[in-house]
Design goal:
With about 150 residues, this protein is mostly helical. The protein contains 7 helices and no strands. α3 (about 50-60) packs antiparallel against α6.
Length: about 150
């Protein structure tokens, strides 16, 4: 029993105890937070997890899966933050009709990710610090995806 007490004492001396308990509210102005979210959304769109949501929408809109994936693959390198991601969601006046439909489908799948999959993504990533800040940011990005022109 004394061996265990010595081990516990060693661990307690190595790990200082915070005098103030943490409230759990983190304000992170990190520029990597929007970038991480946007990269996660684009990875989700091209993954097999999105297929149950993507295939019915593609069928009703008359867009082929291959065309949509090439559209996303062309956009993926240009997305480096929230502003560039939101620019991809806004249909341009000179876009062909297929591209406008693809932008709307991308917006819908992005909403699906933020609503249903983002909490699991946040908590499954061990290297993410300030998980509560990411959870709070999730609502902000959802509002921006719903109305990308603002």
């Amino acid at each position: 029993m004394s061996y265990l007490k010595k081990k516990i004492a060693k661990v307690q001396t190595r790990m200082p105890i915070d005098p103030e308990p943490r409230s759990g509210h983190y304000k992170s102005n990190s520029p990597s937070m929007p970038r991480c979210f946007c990269m996660a959304i684009t990875k989700f769109v091209t993954s097999s997890l999105a297929l149950p949501y993507l295939i019915p929408v593609l069928n009703t809109q008359g867009i082929s899966w291959r065309f949509f994936m090439t559209f996303v693959a062309c956009l993926k390198p240009s997305i480096n933050g929230l502003k560039s991601f939101l620019k991809t969601l806004i249909p341009k006046s000179d876009d062909p009709e297929e591209i406008k439909i693809c932008r709307k489908i991308l917006q819908y799948i992005s909403q699906v990710f933020v609503q249903f999959f983002s909490a699991n993504w946040i908590f499954s990533r061990a290297q993410l610090k300030h998980k509560l800040a990411y959870l709070n940011y999730r609502f902000k990005i959802f509002r921006r995806i719903n109305n990308p022109s603002c």
